[in-house]
Amino acid sequence: MTEMTSVGVDMTAVMELKELDDFIYDIYISGPMTGLPNFNYDAFNEVAQKIRILGLSVFNPAEVFSGRTDLDKKHYMRADIAAVVKSKMLVLLEGWETSSGAQLEVEVAKACGIECVGVKRFYKMVGRILKDLETNKIQPMQFKHLQEKAMRK
Fold first, then answer.
1. Measured between alpha carbons, how far is 67 from 107 in angstroms, rounded to an integer?
2. Which residue, of 45, 55, 123, 151, has the fewest CB within 10 Å?
């Protein structure tokens, strides 16, 4: 039986795809782009940079198609939805609720059991570690060791 979302996404097919592939991104950044200055790339890139400092893999939609902004929206959405189902968590930028694309990404993520957290909450979760990494109080290799130890528990 096919399960369709309110926006017409075949979630049965999405779930089958998710089961076929392993996660390849720790974090997917979701947020508004259309109609914002520079497509909100500055906000996306700032969050992506901080996530990478943590040693996590990130899918940043601002980097898709080498940052091009002249393609039809369907091309971006196809790449984005494919990345959403391969991500462990979505980090939601401020204003995501006003974006039809971000709303779709969140709906797909939730249907796939992928956690969605606001960027402020995400920073609270990782704030101390991020600050220590940025000020060199701990080194990336030390953090990687702590990460691996936590994953074994």
1. 25
2. 151
Please report whether residue 132 resides in a domain: no
Spatial contact of 60 and 29, defined as CB atoms under 8 Å apart: yes
The number of folded domains in the chain is 1
Q: In this predicted structure, what is the pLDDT of residue 138?
A: 59
Per residue in 139-152, pLDDT (tens digit) is 555 555 555 555 55
Domain range enclosing 96: 11-124
* 62 within 8 A of 31, measured Cβ to Cβ: no
What's the pLDDT at 153? 44
Tell me if 96 is assigned to some domain.
yes
| d(C-alpha 49, C-alpha 39), whole Å | 17
| pLDDT tens for each residue of 99-117 | 999 999 999 999 999 999 9
